[in-house]
Amino acid sequence: MYALDDTIVAIASPPGRRAPRGMIRASGPDSFSILAAISNLTPPSKITRAIARIRITISGAHSLPCLAACYRSPHTYTGQQSVELLLPGNRDLLQRITQAFIAAGARQAEPGEFTARAFFNGKLTLTQAEGVAATIAAESDAQLRAAAMLRQGKLGQAADALSNQVADCLALVEAGIDFSDQEDVVAISRHDLHTRITQVYNSVTQLLDRSIPSEKLAATPSVVLAGPPNAGKSTLFNTLLGRRRAVVSHLAGTTRDVLTEILHLDPHNPLSPEIALSDLAGFDSTDPTGLNPAMQQAAHRAVSAADLVIHLQPSDSLAPAIADESLPGPPGLHAQRLLHVYSKADLGADTKEPSRPSPPPALRVSVHDPESLARLRDAIAHRLAGLTTTLSSDVLALHPRHEQTLRAARHVLSSLVEQTTVPGDPEQHSHADDELVAADLRTALDTLGQLNQRISPDDVLGRVFSNFCIGK
């Protein structure tokens, strides 16, 4: 387990050869004194935050200017004294300064240790800490939004509300058991208890129904633009993205690698479904020289793995349409995975349909025609129905642990709903019945507490004293 009483240090900026700035972060009781030992900093006395330009001594000879931000506990991310240094982004330089911190008494931080300290010091809940990890691992806008909901505590807030309702029920039941000799304590009626527990059960069910597994956000559908050289794949790729990502040229073979970018199917709605759109090298198996064999193999692998293949054929070309089985990838590519598109429709708009035997149904698309591009987006969405996932503002993406915890809590609450349904006289129940109900309520409370923070027996007792004037 992590130690919490020493000082840790680590490079906090991502690696990169061209990063203009880098950051080193330290946290712990000796952060200020260690920084003062390797620099000309005078540790701040009582102020909450101090920002200063300092010089750090490296190897006892070299002096490096940097910007230092010192934060006094508990007004920090970790809840401890913290230091952040902004320096040039040279990786070797950052590592040397980190080693200077370690030589002066700090310890190299373990992965996630800064956020772990924030959790253990009560600065973050467990779900918020998971949100930080999810943000780091996010690969799409939908995953970033899901992570932001965790960091903002939306799941934690829902769990707190449910826990509070269960804790209130438990406090009332235990009041009836332990304090029944007090004149101001009236045990909750079985009917009222049943109503309250049913409400909590329904709330958990609604939360599960409004949520999606986080794995669905990771499974972004893959769509590839395939076709012969100079079919307009890269131009269409750039137009759909709204920026120049691929090099466009009239020379065949300009696109060599598989270029992949995340694309919203509705460019005006950031909450619309996302796809991973890829631009491939043009199909050309006649050239065995140079890089072409490797380019064709990469295109082959991309088509094989794609959820949808958009096969582009220029509208101004008189070449026959390429049959499904001539595409690279598994033989007999299923029609549901293949979308025929005639590109450069503006060039062929004034001519008749090119003569070809039994052409497949196809869309006509021009990068200069927004309506044709909208039809293409709609066709992609239709073909990928069931594979794309939309994360709206009222939908939570649950990690497996979250979903398992909520389902376990709902199972216990379902049993409580049955236990508190008494046929005949609803007030006829035994002391032993109350003990069983209290035990199951505690189980439900402990289970929900796994999402955020547990409610202790002292918390329950405090609710009893706040709701009833016991021992007046």
List descriptors.
14 strands; 6-stranded mixed beta sheet; Four Helix Bundle (Hemerythrin (Met), subunit A); Gyrase A, domain 2; single chain; Rossmann fold; 472 residues
Question: Could you write a compact summary of the structure shown?
Answer:
The protein is built from 15 helices and 14 strands.
Outline the structure in words.
The chain is 41% helix and 17% strand. Helix 6 packs antiparallel against helix 7 (190-209) and helix 6 packs across helix 15 (457-467). It has helices at residues 31-37, 91-103, 113-120, 126-137, 141-151, 154-178, 190-209, 214-218, 233-241, 292-305, 345-348, 370-383, 400-419, 431-449, 457-467; strands at 8-11, 21-27, 49-58, 62-71, 82-88, 107-108, 211-213, 222-226, 259-264, 274-279, 308-314, 338-343, 363-364, 396-398. The strands form 3 sheets. It has a 6-stranded mixed β-sheet with strand order 3-4-5-2-1-6, with helices on one face. The longest helix is centred in the middle third of the chain and has 25 residues, at 154-178. The chain has 3 domains: 8-124, 2-Layer Sandwich (Gyrase A, domain 2), CATH 3.30.1360; 141-213 and 396-467, Four Helix Bundle (Hemerythrin (Met), subunit A); 220-383, Rossmann fold. The protein is an alpha/beta fold and 472 residues long.
